[in-house]
Write a structure and sequence with these properties.
The complex is a heterotrimer of chains A (about 280), B (about 350) and C (about 280). With about 280 residues, chain A is mainly α. In chain A, helix 3 crosses helix 7 and helix 9 runs antiparallel to helix 10. Chain A is globular and about 65 Å long. In chain B, a hairpin with a 2-residue loop joins strand 12 and strand 13. Chain C has about 280 residues and is an all-alpha fold. Chain C is about 75% helix and about 0% strand. Chain C starts with about 20 loop residues before the first helix and ends with a helix. The relative contact order of chain C is 0.14. Classes of the chains: A mainly alpha (about 280), B alpha+beta (about 350), C mainly alpha (about 280). Chains in contact: A-B, A-C, B-C. At the A-C interface, helix 1, helix 3, helix 4, helix 5 and helix 7 of A face helix 1, helix 3, helix 4, helix 5 and helix 6 of C.
Chain lengths: ~280, ~350, ~280
Amino acid sequence: MSPQNSTQDPLWVKALVLSLVAAFLVLVLILPLVSVFAEALRRGIDPALEAIANPDALAAIKLTLLTAAIAVPFNIVFGVCAAWAVAKHDFAGKSLLISLIDLPFSVSPVVAGLIYVLIFGAHGWFGSWLIDHDIRIIFAVPGIILATIFVTFPFVARELIPLMQEQGVDEEEAAVSLGANGLTAFFRVTTPNIRWGLLYGVLLCNARAMGEFGAVSVVSGHIRGLTNTMPLHVEILYNEYDFVGAFSVAALLCLLSILTLVLKGILEVLQPQVGARGH
Amino acid sequence: MTISIRAVEKQFARYPALRGVSLDIEPGELLALLGPSGSGKTTLLRIIAGLEFPEAGQVLFDQRDVTFASAAARQVGFVFQQYALFRHMTVAKNVAFGLDVRKAATKPARAEISRRVDVLLGLVELGGLGGRYPSQLSGGQRQRVALARALAVSPEVLLLDEPFGALDATVRKSLRKELRRIHNATGVTTIFVTHDQEEALDLADRVAILNLGQIEQVGTPAEVYDNPASAFVCGFVGEANRFEGHVENGRFVSGAVSFPATTASGPKLGFVRPHDLTLSVGEEAGFDLHIDRVIAQGPVIQVEAKTTDHRRIDAAFARQDVASLTAGTTIRVTARKAHLFDPVA
Amino acid sequence: MTLSASSKRLSPFRRRSAIPGFGITLGVTISLLSLVVLIPLAAVILKASGLDGPGFMAAGFSPRAMAAYRLSFGAAFAAASVNAVFGALTAWALVRYEFFGKPIVNALVDLPFALPTAVAGIALAALYAPNGWVGQYLAAMGLKAAYTPVGVVIALTFIGLPFVVRTLEPVLRDLSADVEEAAASLGAGRISIIGRVILPALGPAWLTGFALSFARGVGEYGSVIFIAGNMPYKSEIAPLLIVIQLEQFNYQAAAAIAVVMLSASFAMLLVINTVQAWARRLSA
């Protein structure tokens, strides 16, 4: 949009606003991002690569990928089911359900971890039963995955619900009246209309799943090589004053988030209505 | 196929949409469901299609109870008001969809499907546009695609929801003729919903008029126009001047307006169509109209006038009957024909 | 073809729909929601209710907990305020101005959504530490950011920025130039257009963005703990206190603090929903 003359800000206002914004973004966003890479490469590229190739780091990378590989499909199944039920049907209590789906976003990540400790921890509801049966959830991989699922829970659903509501039910009704069953209508008519929105939700869900710290930190137990995800590994290295190591793994996560942002930008061009709601 | 609607009731969150609607549709018939918005006509159409389900009553297809059968099982063709074309599929894919999704056992061969698509696109005069996407078509063309798509599954009944509602006036008129032609060519039982009485009278074999969730009258266009069953039908179908008054000694009287009546005495609602007003001759009883405006439209002269007690009246005269009418003058008229109803309590 | 009049029962909770799959998708939705979110959340409340009144007060509102709440809520409020100002300027610049690098700035605004909080935490700590790129200049001026409550505010500013920008942007974009032109044509000056036309229209979105940024800040953990210093009563945030109680196996105290924070989150959620309903009424 190009502002008209009558409503255009004077040049000095524009310059002032842009300088303030630039200064603010440099201090809050850009310098932190740059500093990660600078700290990682402080002693050259080799120590940075070594830190990433370290067995504990590789184990953390593996665990992070595993966590995302479980949490993201779970999120897709839930999100698609929730969106189908909410956006394509009418029922009592719909808006309550939508609020409940959004709930994990307003819960502190630490509380998200805590609730699973209270249920599955040694002193939790199922603690003694789990110990008797030699099942470990807390301070083990299942707890990490559960906590990750909790914090990423709303991502796909809240992306799809408004999108599918906006698209209405006409096309699905047409498909059904032409003889299609539910799955056919979903895969042949609905999916092509929501694919970019779905991908967008998956992208944000994945970024959060790989980057989650607070919730995972509470349930992980920080066992090196076993229950450390990448963000937890960063914390351990940092607390051991291995700054190059910490920032090297962090730089890897930075690259991941930059990739996320680039893909996100592309999706927003492909389907402008995605991401209409902030996260 | 005969479709029977038996005492169907449908309730939406707050208001009743259909209140005990019964209707029989004959095989091969072209029937219009006519009514103002909120009259329940679209709900009735969607219940026939299996897109809504009634709280009470039955829907029978040839005596089979399909009240709760799914839309997919009913083999109806439905044309949506906004067409609901699959936007990511080409025109040809849209038309083929209903055949494409059939189970392997009943699915025609690919060549057969594409032949059928070509035939249908030819029928709706869209030959050669099969490769386009819906977004590349005009409104009228989209409407034709929707029609072809609905016909592709060889439906036993074709249902259209406000088929011309989203089109401009000229396209609307030509598509109206088109629908009649296609109906005659296919012979499929067809029901369409409209709020436009001209469209209903112009196109349908029979018209069912709905108001507030009930059927007021079912009949041929001539029947509902000439012999309206209720005050609502009389006011909704065709134009009519409406008077509140009463009948006394064989005359209907409403203020300055009066004309002969044959019904029993008592309070009545009187309707007189503009062309049923005639110039009264000699000493014949009638009432005076002050002419405000004269519009000559071909063989008809339309007159906007006021009664002596300042009520607006529309009148229409054949040109050969009235030599010259001028605004500002007063004429004496009487009603050649009137429809009288008991006022609604 | 089966045309039997099957499944005649009609649920009182919904209109039977022509689109299939309602039962199974709603079933999956509610089951997963209950298993993953609702039942676990109920567990924390049950755990805290194991405490009697005074016990809950002692655990949930101990002086140390109160200090932690003050810091978490205060810093979140300060950060949301900073974001309300600079986020609004950023949104204004993104919507109204053309400038070099705009697409990059636009993408970068979402960085806090995409960047793991721990990474943000160590980066900000390194940057604002007394020997860091920015911290050294602050130190030269006698100011200390990292390892003080100021550091907490900086981290929460980073975390909350996109909320304000992304909530304001669509409203600013919808606020068509027409309205301003109309005001200008009626003789309004630039200042009075901003004051009387633009700001009132932005109000609800602004408040929503502020509240979202604030709510996110109150619960934030990862980006804060590296820069906060974590001194009890001074720079210890409430989520950290939960972690500390957990590490000492003091589950009930942890649950009590969690319940206080959950109540605060729900209250804010209520406020946000109310503000948004108000905004919808205004725009309708």
